[in-house]
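Researcher: I'm preparing a figure for a lab meeting and need a structural model of a single chain. I don't have an experimental structure, so a prediction will have to do for now. The sequence is pasted below. Please return the structure as tokens so I can convert it later.
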Amino acid sequence: MIDDLILNYVLLFILLEFFEVTWQKAPTIMGMIIKMHRYYSKSILLFLIMHPTFYFSIGFAMLTDLNIYALILLFLKTLDIATKILLIEQIYTKRELSQELSLILLAPINSFLPYVGLFLYPLLILFAL
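Model: Understood. Here is the structure written out token by token.
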């Protein structure tokens, strides 16, 4: 019974994370930000809805009585969304970007990088349970 519950949590999270990776995937970080900006420019609520693992991590932290691993998962997902919003604001609203950051955003990323969360985050779920 417990094993089925753990498996369900992990599979649900992997499915939701795969959804996020699919709509955000691009050859550069700037490409990812451009895709995210499409939703952000329509509504920040829509942008947040497109990150279901964030809501999963909130619920999961509550279900595990604020287990340290669940809180780490929530912290990482919060940090992820906050970083994305800050970059979108920096690029599209403030239009202030250092040359170094521009080079980093335009550099090609490894095709494996977007999938790191599919392996890292489920481990935190397993540790929490």
